[in-house]
Design brief:
Layout lengths: L13 E3 L6 H12 L9 E4 L6 H14 L8 E4 L8 H5 L13 H12 L31
Parallel strand pairs: 1-2, 2-3
């Protein structure tokens, strides 16, 4: 958020982990992050890494240990659910744990995201269903099974 005009991360910089995420997917992601190249100063992020299966988590740790020596200037964030802090990945990387406190207000964060996710030219796209021509939106419910 310090550079409002800088683009948001691209698909190759973020891995959204689920229990179905494979070791191959994590391996490709870690290689992009940890093998030095001339791609600039990208920040790679694994979201919900605590949801990886035990086997994939073990293989992730092994590959990380092997590749981290290739590049000492990597930028990797691993975000996990605090309620699953005792699962494999959060435990293995606990020595690097940083408790994050938002440095900006919710309103500032929302304005920043609106700047990046608003469709400039209204068109016949999915953005027309979200408020203010946003190209993304979150639909949630406190009740299970309400069709959202």
């Amino acid at each position: 958020m310090n550079s409002p005009c800088q683009p948001l991360p691209t698909f190759d910089e973020v891995l959204l982990c689920t229990p179905q995420t494979t070791a191959e997917q994590v391996g490709l992601f870690l290689r992009r992050c940890l093998i030095p190249c001339s791609r600039g100063e990208k920040i790679y992020t694994m979201l919900y890494a605590d949801e990886l299966s035990y086997d994939v988590s073990c293989r992730t740790e092994e590959l990380f240990q092997h590749l981290q020596h290739c590049n000492s200037a990597y930028r990797l964030l691993i975000l996990c659910n605090s309620e699953r802090e005792h699962s494999y990945i959060p435990s293995v990387f606990s020595q690097y744990k940083v408790h994050m406190i938002p440095q900006r207000s919710l309103a500032e964060i929302q304005r920043y995201l609106q700047h990046h996710y608003r469709v400039a030219q209204p068109s016949r796209s999915a953005a027309s269903v979200f408020k203010d021509n946003m190209c993304v939106g979150i639909v949630s419910s406190k009740k299970a099974g309400v069709g959202k």
